[in-house]
Fold these 2 entries.
Entry 1:
Amino acid sequence: MALTLAGLAADRPLGLRVLTGDDLLDRPIGWVHPTELTDPQAFLEGGELLLTTGLALDEQTSPAYVRRLVDAGVAALGFGVGLSHESVPRSLVETAASVGLPVLEVPRETPFIAITRAVSRAVAADEYATTVRIGRAQQELTRTAVGRGGPSGVLRKLAKLVDGWVLLLDTAGAEGAGHGMSYADEVREELKQLRSGTRVFELDGHEVVLQTLPTRARRALAVGTAVPLDTAGRHVVNTAVALLSLALEQDSKLTHAWRLLRTGLVDLLAAGQHELAFGVMTTVWGEPPEPPWALVALAGGPGQRRRVCDALEGEPSLFFAESGSAVLVAGRSGGDVLDRALAAAATVGPMYAGLADPVSLENFAAGAEQADLAARAAEAEGKPLVTYAEHSARGLLSLIDPVVARIYGENLLAPLRQHDESGRGDLLESLRCWLEHHGHWDVAAARLGVHRHTLRNRIRKAGELLGRDLDSPGVRAELWVALQARE
């Protein structure tokens, strides 16, 4: 801790007497500078204890001199008496008191060099203490980074070392320590204004240092403290940034390799190489779940797939892997596979789940396809979960990609929709009802509540707009599929 004016004044051998600024003695002393210049501003940086005997000062020149010192940002003035002045000029003391400049009276018996030595020893001790603190903090952070703690452990350790909160942000989300997560939204807004480097701002009474990490993926570290970071604190944060960057890059490569291995095992299972796949699973993760398996596919964006895999890590008796545009989760049929998969998805949501019928190893490929089709259907319909049994009950539509089917239906029926939106008739509903009743005019007209001639005119108009022969069974089948796909 830096030497303060109070600490220097308490050094009894120096014999210093406080004349003004009793309430400002907590100011730290950056250095000592003796001078007899009446305007030493050009030679000062701020924070100094300025020493003078007042050789060129008197009652008239002292007030302006004091104000120049305040403008230069000096911490205090030490005035040596017994040489040029028997006592400190009254106007100097009065002006210093009014502008908030502490003045220490230095007795004739105390040489300025003694004060310089005292401050120098304190500065050296403070620098040594800072160096020791930085060294110990770097060791603690390094041990955490290379140990089991990993990046998450580094965040927790950093929050403790700086006595604040920490937040690590990337494109997929955020991870915090020491209440950091409560500030995630505000910090992310600040990050939008920072392409690279460091940004310092205030948030909820804290000084926040936001610094980007030199990693391939865009990441940033935010550190919030109740008081501004000192030199040691800034060094500790810089160390954490370096360690996190290395750990995250290594973790990213390792995680990518593990996920490729998992995906490869799915390919082996789908190809019927069950013995080889089970051997690898047993060696790496222990005994795989006992077949038959329940299979759940979780569909979502790349970031969501990565995070749901993270959430599933360590889940006992489950196997999971990225497969196509979904994460496939496998576990013993009759267990809680679906509940655990949905719970993991809820942490990164929204994701869309598809549940296959229980499958044996021999039917793994078909089961995986069932789960994927059901998940695609859930995504297309905006439902959190669709089972394959529910999906397959839709008949022919269950064999078509839901997104493709919907787009096909929208495009094919667009002329009828545009006609109906003009208010000139209800062609879409008339066509649906007519096809649903197998082209029976009287039954369909009665169901619609219109005359059969009105229905005939509507269907003829629909055929003209579509450019299709509605007497053709194939055309009728296409239109029926298109109408179902739009639901």
Entry 2:
Amino acid sequence: MQGTILIADAIATNRIALKVKLCAAYYHVVQAEDMEEALACLRENPPDLVICALTLPGGGAADLCRALKASPDTAQLPVLAIGNSDQAVDRFTALEAGASDVLLKPLDCTLLLGRARSLIRARNAADEWEMREDTTRALGLAEPAAEFTARSHCVIIHSDSAVSVNWANRLRPQLRARLTLATPEEAIRAAANGPPDAYVLVLPNDPVPATAALRLISTLLANAQTRHTGLLVVQLAPDAALAATALDLGADDLMTEGFNPAEMALRLHAILRRKRMTDQLRDTVRTGLKAAVFDPLTGLHNRRYALPHLDHIAEHAVETARPFSVMVADLDHFKGINDRYGHAAGDSVLVQTAERLRNNLRGMDLVARIGGEEFLIVMPGTGLKDAEKTAAAICADIGNRGFVVPGTPQPIHVTISIGLSVGPMEEDGHPLSAEALMARADRALFTAKTHGRNRVNLSRPAA
């Protein structure tokens, strides 16, 4: 399953229609018909996303958002509201209360599913950073939150500079931020003196240039300077397919009905608030752990950080019933490299190995050096098939390219062996501890070593 979604709607046929669409996309769906039942479901087992009618018996989407914000356990839970075109006031009230978006009937399935994917992906990413902060706090290395927040900077990207000027003039009274303007060609150059906090990317009316403009999303997210910048996409005319594509490419939010200064200010405030929170979490991890829990040679996390973080991931996996993968990797015959070429050459191989490991993993994955030439890899939300694919790619990347080391006439050929285990569930349905999964991966590594090295071996449960 891709996640759990709570549908809150008083009309049974609405709930059934939504459930059919979501189940077909492999979501687990739970239902509530009024505010009281919805809140009970949320307290008992918080979902990944709430889809709520604008009005409900006992309240509405705005009331539900306020109730969620009142509890730290549900404050970051995304809410997608559903309403009618004649509910403009209720729609804006829901957005003000914290709803991620309000979709109007008749619902477009492409846009609905695109929104669901985007919101759940953002929630999972936030959870991952919060788990990393939990690890930092457990080690006593967290820093206090900054008391001063600098004024935010937003860039409006529009091919028509006159329209951009008009939008900026109407937006400034409602947004406490510095606004600058750029054409699509200028967007990357605009970050040369420091990346902005958010971009507003305006798509042209014509589908062909609009599709071309969407490529800028990938460019911004791939750029080291701008990959953490918030992104609001604005459509001048509705196009569900383009909207879903923008969200899947990584846009943080979307406006489908053109420019509305009040709504744009609301959405930018939400994007900037989330970015500040994520930046603070990222800075806490970076500054609080660097000296104590990073390996000074490779720049990877060390054992002191990795084992508590693995415990957090295992606990979260049990709570959410999502898989995660654990790998223990070890360079083959590494002692021979030190003996033949010297320890400086061995250190160079370790540094390059760390870089290759990072290049084959996602940003949310953990890779740590836990011994001389031994590495631990943890991949949250990853099942067996994807884990095996990643492990095979790592083996190929290490073994198929020589290591260029200063002072050696030819590249040094090195291979790596990997033991793999997948949690949290054992075959009998009982969760395995992080320690047990790591021990299994370690035994699988031993088997890989004894069967010829340069291979991946999967841990098999005892009969």
